Amino acid sequence: MALPALMKILLTGLLAACSASIAAPLPPDNRVPGGIAVIPLPEYLSENVSVRFNDMDVPVMTTGRERVAVVGIPLSSKAGEQLLELREASASDSLPFRVESKSYPEQHITLKTQEHVNPSPEQLARYEREAAEQNAVYRRFTPGAKEWPVFSLPGRGPFSSPFGLKRFFNGEPRNPHAGLDIALPEGAPALAPADAVVAGTGDYFFNGRTVMLDHGNGIISMLCHLSRISVVPGQTLKRGERIGLVGQTGRATGPHLHWTVSINNARIDPLLLAPTP
Ligand SMILES: [Zn+2]
After folding, report:
1. The domain that contains 45 carries what CATH number?
2. Number of domains the chain contains
3. Separation of 162 CA from ligand 1 center, angstroms?
4. CA dihedral 241, 214, 267, 259 (to 10 degrees)
């Protein structure tokens, strides 16, 4: 074979290998509220086994010859034994696993706009409609690749508020911080943290201008407080593509990018997925 022809074959093969979707190693097994349980499945289970936790489908990934369930553990989870449900056409079983306790630190935030601390009944009704809209996205399960997706941070800046903080607004306790805040200047690009389909966009009372991304297999991202949204629902995105610009819309004390990750409708620590610089 002539050398140029051989080179062409090698090069074509190499390019094909590069353009195929890259699989990331599985996330670390971290069985705490807001963490992830990586649970190998017994070999006897069929390909069609349905794996569920808290009545939600769980992503099942393949690594080599092994199949593993990657289970998101809600922040509200109690420490102790939990059950992974396994259902096949003819039988059902469950796999117990233990969740350890974890106490997250407290954060006290002062807000100048009192309406974001104590919303009016109308604002609360609006919030409830918007939460229902967002929860519908969190409950989506789009079957996808059996390899764990590669994640990277949606913006490069210092972390201003970690995941899991028990929050107090003007001294009053509120829901824990279900995402990671990255401090970025107004107008900085906000990027897709992994390959995704845009699952929804909105302009919400607390979250401001928001983009929700479906990474497949019940893995969902939400990016909030944007000044501008530059994607539309249904659009397909590659990791690192721009979804909008950083801002401080909604309940924010300054420009930053809030990133939530949810697996099987459980919000988990995004830093378990994305390598930190
Ligand atoms: Zn936040």
Report:
1. 2.60.40.1590
2. 2
3. 8
4. 20
pLDDT tens track, the chain, 277 positions: 444 555 554 444 444 443 345 677 899 999 999 999 999 999 988 888 999 999 999 999 998 889 999 999 999 999 999 999 999 988 899 999 999 999 999 988 887 777 777 889 999 999 999 999 999 999 999 999 999 999 999 999 999 999 999 988 888 888 899 999 999 999 999 999 999 999 999 999 999 999 999 999 999 999 999 999 999 999 999 999 999 999 999 988 899 999 999 999 999 999 999 978 7
Which of residues 99, 132, 166 is at a domain's end? 99
Provide the residue range defining the domain that includes 171: 106-272
Give the H or E element holding residue 9: helix 3-19
- What is the C-alpha to C-alpha distance for residues 197 and 217, in angstroms, rounded to an integer? 12
Residue 147 falls within a domain, yes or no? yes
Largest CA distance in the chain: 78
Q: Do 142 and 259 share a structural domain? A: yes
* CA of 258 relative to ligand 1 center, distance in Å: 4
CA of 150 to the centre of ligand 1 (A): 22
**Shared domain check, 180 and 208:** yes
